[in-house]
Amino acid sequence: MPALRRYARALTRNADRADDLVQDCLERAISRRGLFRPKGTVRAWLFTILVNLHRNGLRADRRRGEPVPVEMLPDPAVPAPQPGHLALAEVARAIDTLPLEQKEALLLIALEGLAYQEAATILGIPPGTLMSRLSRARAALRTLTGTPAEPHLRTVK
């Protein structure tokens, strides 16, 4: 459950929505436990449910729109307490600008530390597609944050 919660928080960037998403995921898994087929792990099945619920929620949000609370707007007059917070906030904002499929792939690999095959199974895509999305996400993050690729982290062509 901590891994589901961590992934949900990274996807939604909102603790309350993440908790609701995890709760909905677990409720769905329990109510449909008869549909589980042991082709993979229960963990992968739960992550797949969570991803699908998140995607459905995003579609619903686009249809109705989502208000932004005034408290959530940054106050430009107050500087960040530490430079590390600025860098972290910059990366978080950059991740938020990624297309959903790239964001999902990046978070499953970088945040959850899943193997490529497991992440591909969760997202319902071939491993090559996952690696392509991951590569594009990393390249976009480097561009958005102005960070050059480290020689040992460059993508091999």
Automatic annotation (TrEMBL):
Residue span, RNA polymerase sigma factor 70 region 4 type domain: 90-141
Family statement: Belongs to the sigma-70 factor family. ECF subfamily.
Domain (PhyR sigma2) ranges: 1-50
Signal peptide extent: none
UniProt keyword Transmembrane helix, yes or no: no
Keywords: Sigma factor, Transcription, Transcription regulation
Gene3D superfamilies documented for this protein: 1.10.1740.10, Winged helix-like DNA-binding domain superfamily/Winged helix DNA-binding domain
Record-given protein name: Sigma-70 family RNA polymerase sigma factor
Domain of life: Bacteria
Pfam families: PhyR_sigma2, Sigma70_r4_2
Cross-referenced InterPro entries: PhyR_sigma2, RNA_pol_sigma-70-like, RNA_pol_sigma-70_dom, RNA_pol_sigma70_r4_t2, RNA_pol_sigma_r2, RNA_pol_sigma_r3/r4-like, WH-like_DNA-bd_sf
